Amino acid sequence: MPCLNISTNVSLDGVDTSSILSEATSSVAKIIGKPENYVMIVLKGSVPMAFGGTEDPAAYGELVSIGGLNPDVNKKLSAAVSAILETKLSVPKSRFFLKFYDTKAHQSQEYAQCLHALHQHYY
Question: Which InterPro entries does the protein's record reference (predicted)?
Answer without folding.
Answer: Macrophage_inhib_fac (IPR001398), Tautomerase/MIF_sf (IPR014347)
